[in-house]
Amino acid sequence: AAVVLAVIMLWGVAVADEVTDAIAAAGSAYGSGDYKEASTQLQTALASVNQKLIAMLQDALPDPPSGWTAEDAEGIDASAIGAGFFATLVVDRTYTAPNGSDIDLTISANSPMLVSLRMFASNPMMAQMTGQTGMKKVSACGYDAIEHFGDGTYEMHIMAGNATLISIEGSEESDIEYIRALANATDCKRIVEIVE
Q: Is pLDDT of 140 > 90?
């Protein structure tokens, strides 16, 4: 409840909406001892806040670079559908590079993949020990990143902030420069500010 209230105060909500209504209902239910209803209303408020965060992340995705096109961004609240083990919030957009290749950019908030990626970044030998080849630590949009170009994998994982993973993936070797170009076009700091 404190997290939801803090987000609302941050946004400066001055009028009632579905979030403040749910919080008010939760307070009333809690006061009358109906803890199940209080929990339900707080989950409703949290889900609504997460949808607002998803919309903000979608807005923060880069516009297609010159000569590129892009599909509409998609977003899900993974925790609301029981997939919170993957990430809390996930936003994805597919871009098409000038050569026709599809390049996917995915933002994952609170992704557990960050732990293993940071291990690989701090100790490159870990990747070799697990049979991963073609992995290299680089820098992208102001953060540490891992490029994985090899074994039919063409992707970059940007370890932004403390809990934000930005992944960019292609499908063939010629996509490498497009992956790097899209990384450089991404305002990773803005994304981190939304998530964290």
A: yes
Quick count: other Cβ atoms within 10 Å of Cβ 36? 8
H or E element at residue 143: strand 143-150
Q: What angle do CA 95, 52, 196 make, to 5 degrees?
A: 85
- Nearest Cα neighbor of 29 from 21, 37, 40 is 37
- pLDDT for 79: 65
Residue 122 DSSP class:
H
81 CB burial (10 A radius; 0-12, 13-18, 19+): exposed
What pLDDT score was predicted for residue 133?
59
105/9 Cα distance (integer angstroms): 31
Tens-place pLDDT, residues 59-86: 999 999 999 999 999 998 876 655 444 5
The CA distances from residue 191 to 48, 53, 98, in Å, are 19, 10, 25
* Residue among 85, 128, 113 nearest 169 (CA): 113
